[in-house]
Amino acid sequence: MTTDSAKLRKAITIYLIVMALVALANGLSNSVFSNYFKEVYKTTTFQRGAVELPRELPGMLCYLIISSLSFMGDIRISIISQFLCALGIIVLGLVTPVFGVMLIFLFINSLGMHLFMPLTDSIAMSLIGKSDAGRKMGRFKGVSTAFSMLASFLVFVGFRTGFFSFSARFKTFFIIAGACALGATAFLVALYKISGKDEPKTDRKVKFVLRREYKYYYIIAITWGVQKQIMAVFAPWVLIQLLFKGADTIAILGMAGAFAGIFFIPALGRWIDRFGLKKMLYADALSFIVIYAAYGVLSAGFHSGRFQAVGIPVALTFVLIIIDHMSMQMSIIRTLYLRAIAVSPSDITPTLSMGISMDHIVSISSAVLGGMVWEAWGPQWVFFLAASLSLANLAVAKLAVIPSCAEDAPLEEAITIEETLENEVHGG
């Protein structure tokens, strides 16, 4: 083995460890935040929605920040990002600050997470080279997925056994998450010493495209922003606020949804090939209408006392949570649709950037407005309004004109485009 190949193998091993530690850190914190807000700060539904402002604002800012810091290189920016993650979450683990101060450290943690998101694939691609790129990228993704599921399992066991507790002076789960982020920081420093000094500096420029031809894509990007925020904030809030479920229940349902997704993604690819994009746009729209209408009916029953917090209604709510996790994977359909209608291939990436920026703006506003609607008129109206908004997706499915040649687009390419751009502007 040559010196260069041994050095590369060591760098890849270090980065696999980084991905594992980051997945653990995020899994031990993100999955318990809703319960943390409720049990530690007794947040109202309106406050729960408003909390998404400091959590999602970094998603709108990170692309601009990374562009301005591009002279530093990906690895050094990643070192800063993981240190910010660790700082924000460790403080919340060691002390319980007043609500306003908590939001500051929540923002710091979220900023670190969002800064790292667009860099993960960039660093990985610089390490793997061109040979067997797909297999090697799959290895990185596989490690991240596996340790995310492990984090959910640890949350489930920790809260079920009492090892983790919101009432304890120290929030052990946050401290462990912070330790993992610090570990990732240390390994990134080691990675920089091996390969970062020779890392080419990138010139990232913020690019957006706004064309009349993409008006239907912009519509579904905006509705997607609302849909994903309802799923992330208010679907778990039904379990927490109305059914009084703890972090262990949220974690096990997340594991179930992730496990089901392993089988759902290949099936989705076969359905796209078999039925075509237009029919799958209908399926995408109808899935959200049905899911959120069902959420509305169930939450109305729990809120009024017509449904007891046991038995079949609760089981149906659990099933909806799992299906909801799976339905998030259908964003691939929207990516394929954009590529099918693109005036130029060079429009795809900046148009996705524009769409994701749009969905972040409406994500923040929908979380705040959703909290107001919940408290003013009842939880069911949050979901009924989301289902009504999904009628716009149905209209797009009817009006969209898709070139027949686009039906042969490979799913793997769409997944790569969609994941990369979601990371570049998001995260979350």
CATH H-level superfamily title of the largest domain: MFS general substrate transporter like domains
Q: Please write the CATH class name of the largest domain.
A: Mainly Alpha
- Beta-strand portion reads under 5%
Major sheet summary line: none
Backbone shape: globular
Radius of gyration: 21 Å
CATH topology annotation of the largest domain: Growth Hormone, Chain: A
Secondary structure class reads mainly alpha
Count up the helices. 17
- Separation of termini? 41 Å
- Overall mean pLDDT score? 82
Describe the oligomeric state of these chains in a short phrase.
Answer: single chain
As residue ranges, the low-confidence spans are 407-418, 420-428
Query: Could you tell me the number of beta strands?
Result: 0
The figure for the number of domains is: 2
CATH architectural type of the largest domain: Up-down Bundle
Portion in helices: over 70%
Topology as H/E string?
HHHHHHHHHHHHHHHHH
Layout of strands and helices, then pairs:
Elements lengths: L2 H28 L2 H9 L3 H6 L1 H17 L5 H21 L4 H30 L4 H29 L10 H23 L20 H28 L4 H29 L1 H28 L7 H16 L3 H11 L6 H30 L1 H11 L1 H9 L11 H15 L3
Helix pairs in contact: 1-6, 1-7, 1-8, 4-6, 4-14, 5-6, 5-8, 6-7, 6-17, 7-10, 9-11, 9-12, 9-13, 9-14, 9-15, 9-16, 10-11, 10-12, 11-12, 11-13, 11-15, 11-16, 13-17, 14-15, 14-17
Describe this structure as you would to a colleague:
It is built from 17 helices and no strands. It has 428 residues and is mainly α. Helix 11 (277-304) packs antiparallel against helix 12 and helix 11 packs antiparallel against helix 15. The two termini are 41 Å apart.
